[in-house]
Design a protein that fits this description.
alpha/beta, Rossmann fold, Cytidine Deaminase, domain 2, 3 domains, 6-stranded mixed beta sheet, 19 helices, 19 strands, about 40% helix, about 15% strand
């Protein structure tokens, strides 16, 4: 089943680059070629024999080409497992021949949408048959080779000449197909949302960039958020900061408040209630907190609103599971807020349920996808590796420090004291720089604090700097080749060092 000869292939491409050469390689190997439209014309003009798909299915192309390959003889030929007797029986009963290779590239939806074309023209460039064939073939990659990129034609032609496509190649091509169709569908979703006005944002990170908000179906998390009437429209950057604040608050014990600036927590605290947690979180870094985004994992009360009504308190957005009516009235009617403050209800915030979702980021010409980092500092096992034990009564602070470090951009250092973030270092090129920044932010409050690090310390310099500032305990993943030196530096200064074995990079 590893190397499979190609006895029948279907070629139907929008971009014709290389398709004639691929057709010639298939023909030389004795493969029957099915094709459509312009691809069929190009093959025949080059002297490559091919059968029109309509003749193969016995069903004519119709509706201006909207229906031509959506037929059981096509998808049955792509999806049938050759090693399943029932599948083979169905093929024989219905006259379905196996298709061993598909080459399809999609209508240029992205290019047409970006060109400023009329809506009707853009809609017609939403490919249906192409993605369907690609996905059918990719699902059945044990038996079918699938090509969505002309750059792969030459390598596959070599395998055909060598006797057939290999399983490793078929798997690689199938993965490429699902990445391509996923990106294609995402582009359509973004355009549809923008076209309807429902998810269109004023602009992206900067005014010259366009942006769209596309919620998951079914709605959850931020996609299920309700923006209360009266505030400005949420911007692209507001949504990013809101995601950072809500994601962090979701992991903290309630009641807790998180203050975010440029997606990084600059303040965070546990408290007796919403107002106490908010006041303590703000005091963690009141300079950075000005103009921030705030999330609470408990209902937002009037007492919490009174905290923000104090002088020198200004925020862009507040998120909570719900808002008390009198809290909204105080914020909306306060002279300094006017009509700008955004209030966002996120029902799941504070539920304690992890995100448990795939995370995707676009890079140049590709999409990176990973599972979410659902491991939390609140539940990780601490292994004390130093001579000094965990300071009595400080484990909760250490767990809070480790959770907050997870939500800071790497390299990340979080200093916590009495359930409150007192200093944070994030996004620096070296861990010692992040340590220095966290200590500078904390000032005198570094004395007696504990530290959390999102990754191991490569050298003793970071812990030495933290210890000199008065940090009494450090929690980190461990795993450096210099762990012993780092621990020895802590031992020399009477500082507790604990390892978790779990890294929390956030690039």
């Amino acid at each position: 089943m590893d190397r499979i000869p190609v006895q029948r292939a279907l070629l139907s491409v929008y971009y014709k680059d290389g398709v004639v050469e691929l057709g010639r390689a298939l023909a030389a190997a004795g493969a029957e070629i099915l094709s459509t439209g312009g691809t069929l014309k190009a093959l025949r003009e080059a002297g490559v024999a091919a059968t029109e798909v309509a003749d193969w299915t016995g069903f004519p192309e119709m509706m201006d080409g909207r229906v031509k390959t959506l037929h059981p003889k096509i998808h049955g030929g792509l999806l049938a497992r050759r090693d399943d007797a029932r599948h083979r029986a169905s093929m024989e009963e219905h006259g379905i021949g196996a298709i061993d290779l598909v080459a399809v590239n999609l209508y240029p939806f992205e290019e047409t949408a970006a060109s400023g074309a009329e809506r009707a023209e853009i809609v017609e460039k939403i490919d249906i048959g192409g993605p369907s064939m690609l996905r059918s073939a990719a699902k059945n990659h044990d038996f079918v080779a699938v090509l969505c990129d002309p750059a792969d034609y030459a390598a596959v032609a070599e395998e055909i000449r060598a006797g057939g496509t290999t399983l490793a190649t078929r798997r690689r091509l199938a993965a490429k197909v699902f990445a391509r169709t996923g990106a294609y569908d995402a582009a359509i979703a973004r355009w549809m949302a923008d076209d309807s006005g429902a998810g269109a944002l004023r602009y992206g990170e900067n005014p010259h960039q366009t942006a769209t908000f596309v919620a998951d179906v079914p709605a959850r998390g931020l996609g299920a958020a309700r923006v209360l009437e009266g505030g400005k429209e949420l911007s692209y950057n507001n949504w990013l900061d809101l995601d950072g604040a809500a994601g962090c608050a979701q992991e903290l014990p309630a009641p807790a408040a998180v203050v975010v600036k440029h997606t990084n927590p600059c303040g965070a605290a546990l408290g007796r209630d919403a107002a106490d947690a908010l006041a303590r979180a703000w005091d963690g870094d009141p300079v950075s907190a000005f103009g921030s985004v705030i999330a609470l994992n408990v209902p937002f009360t009037r007492a919490a609103a009174e905290v923000l009504a104090a002088p020198n308190h200004f925020v862009e957005l507040i998120a909570a599971p719900s808002f008390d009516a009198d809290a909204v009235a105080l914020l909306r009617n306060g002279p300094k807020w006017g009509k700008n403050l955004r209030l966002v209800e996120i029902p799941e915030l504070g539920s304690g349920r992890p995100r448990a979702q795939a995370e995707a980021r676009r890079v140049w010409g590709a999409t990176l996808v990973q599972s979410s980092d659902d491991s939390s500092g609140s539940s990780e096992t601490f292994q004390v590796v130093s001579q000094a034990p965990l300071p009595a009564g400080r484990e909760a602070d250490l767990r809070l420090a480790q959770t907050l470090a997870k939500h800071l951009k790497s390299n990340a250092i979080a200093l916590v004291k009495d359930g409150m973030l007192v200093g944070a270092g994030a996004g620096q090129m070296s861990r010692v720089d992040s340590s220095r920044l966290a200590v500078e932010k904390a000032g005198a409050r570094a004395q007696g604090s504990v530290a959390g690090s999102d990754a191991f310390f490569p050298f003793p310099d970071g812990p030495e700097l933290l210890a000199a500032a008065g940090v009494v305990a450090i929690v980190q993943p461990g795993g450096s080749v210099k762990d012993a030196e780092v621990t020895a530096a802590c031992d020399a200064r009477g500082v507790c060092m604990a390892h978790t074995g779990v890294r929390h990079f956030r690039h």
